[in-house]
Structures are given as structure tokens and as C-alpha cells.
Amino acid sequence: MSDTHAQSVAFVRETELPPAPPPVTETGAIKWVRENLFSGWFNTLLTVVAFYFVARILFFVFPWFFNGVWDAASIRECRDVLGGATGACFAVLVDRWDHLLFGFKYPPDGYWRIVVAFILLLGAAAPALFSKLPRRLLLFTALYPFVAYWLIWGGSLWLPMTILGIIIATGLVFRAVSSQIPVNMRQMVAAAIGMICGVGLSYLLFIGAKELVFIANSIGTASLGTSFAYGVFWLLAIFTFVFFIPMGMFVGYAIYNSYEDGGLVSVVTALLFIYAALVYLLAPIASGLNAVIPIELQAVASRDLGGFMLNMILGTVCVSLSLPLGIVLALGRQSNMPLIKGVCVVFIEFIRGVPLITLLFVANVMLAYFMPPESNFDLILRVIIMITMFSAAYIAEVIRGGLAALPKGQYEAADSLGLDYARSMRLIILPQALKISIPGIVNVAVGLFKDTTLVSIISMFDLVGMIRGPIQNSTEWISVYWEVYGFGAMLFFIVCYSISQYSQWLERQLQTDHR
Amino acid sequence: MAMTDQAPGKMGISDEVAIEIRNMNKWYGTFHVLRDIDLTVQRGERIVICGPSGSGKSTLIRCINALEEHQKGTITVDGTLLSSDLKNIDTIRSEVGMCFQHFNLFPHLTILENCTLAPIWVRKIPKREAEETAMHFLKKVKIPEQADKYPGQLSGGQQQRVAIARSLCMRPRIMLFDEPTSALDPEMIKEVLDTMIELAEEGMTMLCVTHEMGFARQVANRVIFMDAGQIVEQNEPEEFFNNPKSDRTKLFLSQILGH
Ligand SMILES: Nc1ncnc2c1ncn2[C@@H]1O[C@H](COP(=O)(O)OP(=O)(O)OP(=O)(O)O)[C@@H](O)[C@H]1O
Ligand SMILES: [Mg+2]
């Protein structure tokens, strides 16, 4: 190519002039600084003051951090090494990192189990969090709770596997029941199941009532207060006796009435099956299998779990349970049926009106009263139930807001296409309502995760309990403060910040209106 | 809009009854919205309902697919009596398509998913087949190229045509329209009306609340005028427009055709 291809024109520039750089005062950093930090006397003043404070903090933190002692056996040794200079005593983290992460009673040769469970957690959460991943990976997500249970608590692998087997069998029973019962038989089947349910419910509540009588008798009537409690428990027991037998019959009747679909019948049959299987089959099958092929890890009691691991367990389990429960509560609160609506409203309002710490105390102390004396209803399980109920109530209200924000036309369009309630909720209403509710749900989830540190108050040794108890009370690390709490804050920050980043990413992904 | 000269004939109307409403009454609380409605719609009939605002037109057609509950009288759709039985209601709804004034597309689903959702989940049609049907109807309403977009990216007229296609994918035997064009700009009104005219020519049973009198003249077999919750007058379109019987109808027509 020649430079001048148009002969008729004296001069034609063939190439564009490269843009000249703007003067220094108009570019990058300097321009930014001028416009943002020194644009007027007031801004200049603020900048200077802010710089002063930032500098003060940094001048303190940097030496503290970089002078830090990583290798010492006690706080005294740290001070000796520092010899009066400012400096952190990170040796506590080196010495006690395992206690901070896993609690002080978890067997050290089992730490790898926690690490593996954590890594698998990332793998199990991924397909649930990122819909681009192949859906088949969700199978692993479904398996994960059983694997994680075995890794963390140890014992025989056959126990969680048998539970898994029973759940799968229940699903098969459900399918069989819902499709196989001939239409003309359904009425009779429903009647029979209704009767069994009625009897079963009454039976369960009889046990409860007996328990109440037992408690009442053990309280006795020594003083005015206890005789009052005695009276209350007896009243409750009588109430249980006279109220819940008709209640059992009512449930039977309700099932009888809804025979047409077979839906409720199959659900109840499946639930009865799972109940019976868990009570009668679980132990013999699991121990039988274990006798044949023993696959065991050293068992760890719930009491011995602790450290940040405990916070993670409570956080993940409670968040993943309270989301579905919250959805159910939110839908229930919108229901047209007064009974369902009433139950949900009372539940939500009651739980929200009570501080979490109270619920935890109830879990710790009160629930133990209501259990038969030799039953070992795990403390962690009790705490999980309480925290789950607490956050479910909040999530339900957040989701209710999302449901209310949807235009009525969406419900009507779904109805007019002939979608039934369950499908219109699942396919049309909830995806949109949940999308609107993401910021609120994440807010609750982050709050819940941090609130798991409250269990330190009912003497569980989570991260905070660990710091306040065994570490700060030990003679070696008696007044270490910033280092351990800073470490704890860092762990919590990493998790909470990731949750928040994920939710923002998810919101962008789900945005379909203006693309 | 080009008007065909030929008067709407009785062609395509069978003796079969599609909708039968007997002595139907509805109240909102103590407010008596619909009073003694009697209406029989033959299969293949195209009916336009008009009347002043608040006269109960929307309420009437919403009662037909049980979006609103009526308190007295009977509604029979396609031989199925509308009662509080949820099964019956779902059956009727899957036979009756409905288009709304504000389209009510599902914003979180693509156009194609909007159209295939109900066939897949209600009719249990395999996904592939449902998608083919959806593309067929999207072609029919002349927007197959938008299939992978989201409703928020379409113009109003396009959205309403998608809404029509979405209803058609369920292969309904009856279509209800509640002011399908009144939220649209003039150019878009034409494209939606053209779609509806095409539908009418294929013999779909249609009940249409609209104030598009040109549309009524061209396709309706019968025009129904409602006022204060009652059917005041019904007639063939020519008679209705040229020779209204009641004073109320005359007043309404003079207002709506006057400018
Ligand atoms: N959910 C409701 N609760 C109480 N009253 C209502 C409700 N919906 C409608 N109405 C009343 O019922 C009457 C009929 O309403 P409808 O929507 O059927 O009128 P319309 O003929 O469709 O009017 P428009 O042409 O403005 O759409 C109106 O007076 C309206 O105020
Ligand atoms: Mg209306």
C-alpha cells in the first residue's frame, strides 16, 4: 500500500494521528486526587484529618503485627521476647489453632475427618448454588449429609447408610402407594390409615401426657410455687388426654376426606413407614451390617464438638433447614384455611417475639424435662431445632414480603392456565418471590451464622466459647485478647463476605428484566 | 383498519353449547356486581362484551374460569359444572384460555418457556413436543424470532401476542379476552387485533371484552352491552350499532363513537 493513493488530491493522511496524552494534571491518579480529595478547603481539611487518623492506626497496627511473636509457649514468654516493645503474641494461634478450629475435646488424629467433611461441603454446596453445573451433581449434595454425619460423629458407616436406605425405601413406598391403589379401594385405604393415624397420634400424646404427670408428681407440692407448677402440669396432662384423642380422630377424618387424590394418603403412609422403619429396623439392620462388614470411625460425642467447626455445622445445617421451613411458613401464612394460617401466624409471631438466647436456654434446660429420662436427645440436635425455628420465622417474613410484592396478575395467569396450587407456587410464584427476597434472606443467613456464637452461653465450646473458656482461662494464655478475637473475626468475615458476594452474583444472574 | 363488507354470518357456529350461564349473581361483600346474568354461548361463536367502566364486564368473564367466585346461579363450561370442587376448576381452566389487559407474562421465564410451561406440567406433554407446538403458535402470532428473549425485552404488542400464543399452546376450546388492547399504543393495537381476527376466522369460540368497535363489527356474531351488572342489550353487530334498542345503549354508543 502506498502512502498517497489518491493522485488528484495533494495530500491525504492515510493513517490516523495517535491521540496525544492529556496534560499530567488531567490524568489518572492526580486528576482523581484533585477532584475527590482536594476540591475545596473543606474537603482538603477532611482529607488531612482522615489521613492523620488512618496513619495513627497504621502506625500502631503495623509494628504490632510485624513484631508479632509466633513462637512461644506462653504469654509470659511472648512478653520476654518482645521486651516491652509493642507486638502481638500470635504464638497463641500456633499453640491452640486446633482448639480454635475443632474444639479441645475432638480427638486430634480425627482432624482430617473434619477437613475432608469441609472440602466435601464445598463440593456439595456447589451444584446447589450454581445452576450452571450439571444437575446430576445434586445427587452428591443429597448424599452429603449422611457422609458428613459419619465423618464428624464417627461410629459405624452403616448407621447413616441405613437411614439413607430407609428414606429411599420410603420414597419408593410413596410412589407405589400413590399410583397403585385402585380408585375404588382408596376410600377404604384412607379410612384405615386415618384410624391408624388417629390411634398413633393419641398414643404419642399419651406418652407426652404421662410424662407431664410424671413431672408433676416429681415436683410435688412442697411450697406455693411448686404446687402451682404441679397444678399446671396436671392441667396440661388432662388437656392432652381429653383434647388429643378427638384430635387424632379428626386427623383420620381429614385424611378420609381427601382420599380422592391419594396424595395425602401416600404422604401419611410414607411417614408412618419411615417412623416404623426408624424405630424397629434401623438399629438391627445397622448393627447387623456392621457385624458383617465393619466400617467404623472412632465415635465422637456431640459434647466433644467445638471450635469454629461447631459454628460451621450449626450455620450450614440451620440455614439449609430454615429456608424450606421458612417457605412453608410464608405460604401457610397466606393460606385461605384459617387453621393453617392461624398455626403459622402464632408460630412466627411467638418465635420472633422471643430472644434467641431464651430459646437456647429452653433447648438446654427445659426440653430435657420433657424427654423420657433415659432418652438421649442430643444437645446439638436441640440447639439446631431452636436456631432453625428462630431463623425460619424471620425468613418466612422476608419471603412473605416477596410474595406480597408480586402483582396479582401473576397468580391469575398461573391459575388461568390450569396450574394447580403446588405447581403455580413452585414454577411461577416462588421463583419470583424468592428472587425478590434474596437480600433479606442473606441478611438473615449472615445474622444467623454469627448468632451461632450465642451457644457459648449454654456452655458449648464454639469458637467464642473456646476463647472465653479453655484458652483465656489457661495459665499460659491468660490475657490474650486481640490475637484470638481477631482470628475469630477473620474467620467469620471470610464466610459472611463470601455469602454476601455470592448473593450479589446470584441477583445479577437472575436479573431478566432489562438485559 | 380495513373492514370487510360482508356481514358476519352464522358460519362455523354449531348447535353445541360451549358456555351456559344461568341466573348468575355475584356480590363483592354487599355490593351486587352481577345481577341475574343469563348467557348461552354456542361453540364457534364470537361474542364482544362492551359497556361503561365498572359495569362488571371483567367480573363476568373472570367468573367463567373461576378467577372470581359467583354466589348464586350456575355456570357450565364445556359440559362441566363450575362448583367449588378444585378438580373441576382446574379442568375448566385448562380448557379455557385467557388474555389479560396487562399480559401477565411470567418475567422470570423466556418466551418459549412461558409457552411450554402449562402444556408440560398440566397436559404432561413431552418437552420437545411442547416446544414444537410453542414455536408453531409463536410463528402464528408472528414472533418466532423472540422465543429466547425474556418478556421484559419485548414491546407491549409483542407481549400481548405472546400471551395469546401462551394460551393457545394449551389448545383451549374457548378463549376469553379482557380488554387485550387497552394498554397498548395504536400501532400495536392493530397487530394484536389482526392476531385475534385470524383466530376468529379459524372458528375459535371467543368472548372478548373490548371497546374496539371496528373489531366487533368485523368478527363478532353478537355484541353484548352491560350496565350496572346487567346485560342490557344483545344483538348482531349491525343491528346493535345501527339500531340500538335501549336508551342506555344509545347514550353509550354516542359517547364511544362520537369522537
Ligand atoms: N375485588 C373487588 N372488590 C370489590 N369490588 C370490586 C372488586 N373488583 C371489582 N369491583 C367492583 O365491581 C365493579 C365491576 O368491576 P369490573 O372490573 O368487572 O368492571 P369493568 O366493567 O371491567 O370495568 P372496566 O371497563 O373499567 O374494566 C366495579 O364497580 C368495581 O369497583
Ligand atoms: Mg375491566
Structural summary, described in words:
The complex is a heterodimer of chains A (515) and B (259). Chain A has 515 residues and is mainly α. Chain A has 18 helices and 2 strands. Chain A has 3 domains: 65 residues, no CATH class; 143 residues, no CATH class; 212 residues, MetI-like fold (Orthogonal Bundle), CATH 1.10.3720.10. In chain A, 73% of the residues lie in helices and 1% in strands. A two-stranded antiparallel sheet of chain A has the order 1-2. In chain A, helix 4 packs across helix 17, helix 6 runs antiparallel to helix 7 and helix 8 runs antiparallel to helix 9. The longest helix of chain A is centred in the middle third of the chain and has 37 residues. In chain B, strand 7, helix 6 and strand 8 form a beta-alpha-beta unit. In chain B, helix 4 packs across helix 5 and helix 5 packs parallel to helix 6. The longest helix of chain B is centred in the last third of the chain and has 16 residues. Chain B is globular and about 55 Å long. The two termini of chain B are 17 Å apart. The N terminus of chain B is likely disordered. The interface between A and B is medium-sized, with 24 and 30 residues. Bound molecules: adenosine-5'-triphosphate and magnesium ion. The site of magnesium ion has 4 residues of chain B, from helix 1.
Topology, please?
The complex is a heterodimer of chains A (515) and B (259).
Chain A: H1 28-36, H2 41-66, H3 75-82, H4 91-102, H5 111-129, H6 138-153, E1 155-156, H7 158-180, H8 183-219, H9 224-257, H10 263-292, E2 296-297, H11 307-333, H12 338-352, H13 356-370, H14 379-405, H15 408-416, H16 421-451, H17 463-471, H18 482-510
Antiparallel strand pairs in A: 1-2
Helix pairs in contact in A: 4-11, 4-17, 5-6, 6-7, 7-10, 8-9, 8-10, 11-12, 11-14, 11-16, 11-17, 12-14, 13-14, 14-16, 15-16, 16-18
Chain B: E1 17-28, E2 31-42, E3 46-50, H1 57-64, E4 72-77, E5 80-81, H2 86-95, E6 96-99, H3 111-121, H4 127-140, H5 156-168, E7 174-178, H6 186-201, E8 205-209, H7 213-219, E9 222-227, E10 230-235, H8 237-242, H9 247-257
Parallel strand pairs in B: 3-8, 3-9, 6-7, 7-8
Antiparallel strand pairs in B: 1-2, 1-4, 4-5, 9-10
Helix pairs in contact in B: 3-4, 3-5, 4-5, 5-6
Bound molecules: adenosine-5'-triphosphate and magnesium ion.
